[in-house]
Write a structure and sequence with these properties.
The protein contains six helices and eight strands. The chain is α+β, with helices and mostly antiparallel strands and 224 residues long. The protein has two domains: 55 residues, no CATH class; 130 residues, 2-Layer Sandwich (Conserved hypothetical protein from pyrococcus furiosus pfu- 392566-001, domain 2). The chain has a six-stranded antiparallel β-sheet with strand order 3-5-4-7-2-6, covered by helices on one side. The protein has a two-stranded antiparallel sheet with strand order 1-8. The longest helix is centred in the N-terminal third of the chain and has 18 residues. The radius of gyration is 21 Å and the shape is elongated. The relative contact order is 0.19.
Length: 224
């Protein structure tokens, strides 16, 4: 990927054109945005500065048109799975051996365990909340929490996440080398689902989207 940067001395054209865009969606880096806003709030009180007049009120962003973005799956790997737990999973959720390593449609996941790939249909949610209908939420609420005991995927050391850019070969590698017992290959969340969740004022579950393209970290630095 080639990165090109142009320096401009006037922002009037940008202000005019972006004023015609009805919505911008924060697709990645929500926690960094929140951290930046907290820093600004703290420094504003310490310096008695007015909103928008100091360098700490701003931070770098990159904007992509939706038609130039891709969402890849954010896959899961689990450290400790017993044969008994996997048997329960297989028997209760109708796992079938599969030649495919990735699910072909929404509502399904593929699972890698002891050198075999399995296909599983995710149970439907008990409510009609837009977030509950996401595959990552279905997996968390029906499998990871009740069966594997993973209450909070953000903090539980028994689960780790693998960006879809690394492919299913990385999932096989992590399980075959003994670092993890089981891997879950997800179907990617759609941009439409992301927008629906945002428009309803909800929050996406953790590690539910892997966005491409990504710019190089540190390409532009904002100092204050």
């Amino acid at each position: 990927m080639i990165h090109r940067i142009w320096k401009t001395f006037s922002t009037l054209d940008f202000v005019e054109r972006f004023s015609k865009i009805p919505n911008l969606y924060v697709a990645d880096g929500h926690h960094r945005c929140k951290s930046a806003s907290r820093v600004a709030e703290t420094l504003r009180k310490e310096t008695n500065a007015h909103i928008g007049e100091s360098e700490f009120e701003y931070f770098p962003v990159v904007l992509f048109p939706m038609d130039q973005m891709r969402i890849l799956p954010y896959n899961r790997v689990i450290k400790n799975i017993t044969d008994e737990t996997f048997s329960t999973l297989k028997n209760n959720f109708g796992l079938k051996k599969s030649d495919s390593k990735s699910p072909s449609q929404k509502g399904f996941v593929n699972i890698f365990y002891e050198n075999d790939w399995w296909e599983m249909k995710l149970p439907e949610p008990v409510d009609d909340n837009i977030v509950s209908s996401l595959d990552v939420a279905k997996l968390q609420n029906s499998i990871l929490k009740p069966l594997f005991g993973i209450e909070n995927p953000r903090t539980d050391n028994n689960i780790h996440f693998v960006g879809g850019i690394r492919g299913t070969a990385e999932l096989e590698k992590l399980v075959n080398n003994g670092k993890f017992d089981l891997a879950v290959s997800m179907y990617p969340t759609s941009i439409g689902e992301l927008i629906d969740v945002s428009d309803q004022g909800e929050l996406m579950p953790p590690k539910s989207t892997w966005f491409e393209p990504k710019i190089k970290s540190g390409l532009i630095i904002h100092t204050f």
